[in-house]
Every structure is written in structure tokens, then in C-alpha cells.
Amino acid sequence: MAEFDAIVVLGAKLASDGTSTPALRRRARHGAALLNAGIAPVLILSGGQPVAGLSEAEVMFEIALGQAADPERILLESTSRTTWENARFSATLLRQHGWHRVLLVSDAWHLPRALIAFRAAGVTAQASAPRAFDVSTAGRLRNVGRESLALPWYLMRVLVSRPPR
After folding, report:
1. Fewest CB atoms within 10 Å of the CB: 45, 74, 87, 105?
2. At 146, which helix (H) or strand (E)?
3. Which of 16, 85, 20, 14 is nearest to 46 (CA)?
4. Positive or negative, the Cα torsion across 19, 89, 164, 9?
5. H or E element: which one contains 77?
6. What tens digit of pLDDT does each residue of 66-112 get?
7. Structural domains of the chain, count
8. What angle do CA 2, 7, 9 make, to 5 degrees?
9. What are the beta bridge partners of residue 157?
10. In the chain, which stretches have pLDDT less than 70?
11. What's the CATH code of the domain at 75?
């Protein structure tokens, strides 16, 4: 029996020409590897923001196929524009299928905020991050800096507003 009902991979910004960025490739490959390892029966790729006609989820789908992931076991959530929306829209999809236990995939610096959003949306989630060997020290500092500003905002949002259901 699989450990989780689903693996949810969070998108990352696409390049200006609509191609994948290192973060998007890292996350999609990690999610596909977890699916192929039998961690969960289904992979949900979450991310909108179409560039050149393709959403983050659609670009991740192609990456997952390149990792030998079974297309019949992949669902796309291709309308979200933020982590908050990733959580809200994915939670709706999860509830429609009766899935509750989720392994959430994103970069390590993004996962604390993502877990807050998913848990606020009523999703029981654990985290898994790919190794980020391709990120420079400056890039890591920029990402951690961004998250250090965004995390308190999400905490406040959960405390003073309705959960993103």
C-alpha cells in the first residue's frame, strides 16, 4: 500500500519563452521519481501562469513523462498563480477524489510556507524537497530572503482570514 494518497508538486516560474526553469525541472523530476517509487498512486502537478501558451503544470507534465511517469497517473491543476492558490485548488481536486494524505514537493526554502497553506486548506501534508545542487549561494540567499518575508504574511493570513478552502 502506498504511503500517501497523492503527491502534489508545486510549480515554479517559467522562463520568458515558456520553457522550464531549473526549479521547475527539479520539482517535476523529484515528483516523478516519487511516483515511480510507489510512494503514492497519483501525481498532481500544480501551477498556472501560462507563458507561450503552456502552464507550469503542463510543462511539468512533459518533464514527468521524460522521467517515465505513467501519464494515466498524473492530474493537472493548471490555474493557480500563487502558493495559496496551489493549496486551495489542489485541495478541491483532492476532496473530489477522496484523497487526504499528501506528499508535497517543492524546494526546501518554499516548503514551510507551502505546508501552512495546504494545512490551512484542510490537507494533511508532509514535505519532500529535491536536492538543489544547481542553485548558487546568491540564489539560495535570495530564495530564503523572499520566504522570510512571505512566511509571516501567510501565517497572518491564516490567523485573521478564512482558510483557503
Report:
1. 74
2. helix 137-160
3. 85
4. negative
5. strand 74-77
6. 999 999 999 999 999 999 999 999 999 999 999 999 999 999 989 99
7. 1
8. 165
9. none
10. 132-136, 139-140, 143-144, 149, 151-152, 155, 157, 159, 162-165
11. 3.40.50.620
